[in-house]
Amino acid sequence: MSSIARSWPALFAWGAGLLHLALAAQVVRAALVPGVVVAAMLLLQGTAELSWGVLSLRRGRPVAARAVVAGAVTGLVLAAVAIGGGGSPVAVAAVVVLVVPASMLTWSARARTAVSTSRRLVPAIGIVAGAVLVAGLVTPALSTTTGSGEHGHDDLSSFDPHAGH
After folding, report:
1. In this predicted model, what pLDDT tens digit does every residue of 82-92 receive, in sequence order?
2. pTM of this prediction?
């Protein structure tokens, strides 16, 4: 795996983790027992993805390839189930776009465990390029989700600082 793409699975996992957390907030709004269970599983999935991304960046390479593939399948199933609980289809599509390449890159790197310790500009450019790619995909997808608050994105009257004056 090239040094440029070595950090991308971790960045993709962070994006998917954030989206899984947002989907959990959306599903929990259903307030039904199955929705709460799915939301709890989505929270665990998102937390695991964020943690794995930190560990992989710290090690300088993707780690635990078999666990990543199992986690990817779990994440895809949970995201698909979230649609039934009111989750954003756009966010789920973004999860698919992030999880599939992350797991493929991690699986392809499983045999190559040698880590380059060189601190050149190219790996930094790779990290920045990956971060821009993930941010460009995750930010619009996050905007399609709603939190567990009372007000949606369209109700701006409660945020008007001059209301009632």
Report:
1. 988 888 899 99
2. 0.76
